[in-house]
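ok, trying the design again with the full structure, not the truncated one.
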């Protein structure tokens, strides 16, 4: 609502209106503003006096008074009365005019006083309005200052938060760099440790190879030395025949050849290798014409060693019963279909002989 002041229709004084304006009671208005009462009283007095004298001029004798005078007396009396009335009216009029002039002057004075009071009141209201406006402006300025201060504080806080965030980011980056450096250092230490382990392993491998080489050299040296190995009795010698021994040609002390069917070893030394030549002889050959069989006994006499030397050996005797009546001999499929009357020991037959005396073998 717009603030200001206006002339009150009830009391004749200027009152404020607006959000903060309040209307005083009439008793308070009259009590605090006597100008209105004086002006009204003066105007009422002027009106009453003027009306009274006007009525006297128009009606010199009140209605209802009996006219007892004769016409002359009435005329004389009227003239005298009129003169007196005119004089009185003139005097009264002069007095009334003087009173009216005085009342007018008083009214003008009161009007001037009212205008002065109105001007003072308006000045007071304007001053109060200006003061209120200034107060409002100051309040608004204070509000704006507070808002600006709050914004400044918020900006300061935001800057502080940003600085703290940057500091935290830098701290995190520094921590990450430190962790990366630690990891790099750990990786470098691990690499150095691996390198040292590799060097140690290489050294150990070299030492092991040197030890193996020394061991091999020792073994080679030991092997290069003449070494006597004794094959005890009952050492098995497995052979496989490589020639055919017939009953017709088999005679005592007839030699035959065979192949060693397995290595002969002593400890970790190979005395004779599989496939080496073995020599033997027929120790006995008994033919039985009634059963058409021939009992052929064999022994071994020579053994070829691993180094190629041939040594003499004494072994047990192995018997072989050869028959000319059967179509197969010892289940050997290679002789199936034989229809001749010749008993024989075919090629490819395996025998196991045993040493009957120990054998000293000098290995070079």
């Amino acid at each position: 609502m717009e603030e200001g002041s206006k002339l009150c229709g009830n009391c004749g004084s200027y009152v404020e209106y607006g959000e903060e304006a309040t209307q005083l009671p009439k008793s308070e208005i009259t009590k605090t503003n006597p100008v209105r009462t004086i002006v009204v009283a003066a105007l009422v007095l002027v009106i009453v006096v003027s009306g009274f004298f006007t009525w006297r001029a128009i009606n010199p004798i009140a209605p209802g008074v009996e006219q007892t005078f004769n016409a002359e007396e009435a005329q004389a009396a009227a003239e005298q009365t009129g003169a007196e009335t005119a004089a009185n009216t003139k005097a009264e009029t002069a007095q009334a005019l003087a009173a009216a002039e005085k009342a007018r002057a008083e009214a003008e004075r009161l009007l001037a006083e009212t205008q002065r009071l109105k001007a003072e009141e308006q000045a007071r209201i304007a001053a109060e309005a200006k003061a209120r406006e200034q107060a409002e402006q100051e309040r608004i300025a204070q509000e704006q200052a507070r808002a600006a201060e709050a914004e400044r504080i918020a900006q300061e806080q935001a800057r502080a938060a940003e600085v703290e965030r940057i500091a935290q980011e830098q701290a995190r980056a520094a921590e990450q760099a430190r962790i990366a450096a630690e990891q790099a250092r750990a990786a470098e230490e691990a690499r150095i440790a691996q390198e040292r382990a590799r060097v140690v392993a290489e050294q150990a491998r070299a030492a092991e190879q040197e030890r193996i080489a020394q061991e091999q050299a020792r073994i080679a040296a030991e092997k290069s030395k003449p070494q006597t190995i004794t094959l005890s009795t009952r050492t098995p010698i497995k052979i496989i025949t490589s020639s055919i021994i017939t009953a017709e040609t088999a005679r005592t002390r007839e030699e035959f050849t065979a192949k060693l069917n397995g290595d002969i070893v002593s400890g970790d030394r190979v005395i004779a290798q599989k496939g080496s030549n073995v020599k033997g002889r027929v120790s006995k050959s008994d033919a039985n014409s009634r059963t058409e069989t021939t009992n052929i006994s064999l022994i071994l006499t020579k053994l070829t060693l691993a180094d190629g030397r041939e040594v003499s050996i004494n072994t047990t005797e192995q018997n072989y019963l050869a028959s000319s009546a059967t179509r197969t001999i010892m289940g050997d499929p290679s002789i199936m279909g034989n229809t001749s009357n010749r008993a024989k020991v075919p090629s490819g037959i395996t025998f196991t002989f045993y040493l009957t005396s120990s054998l000293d073998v000098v290995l070079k």
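Keeping the full-length input from now on. The two ends are 138 Å apart (CA to CA).
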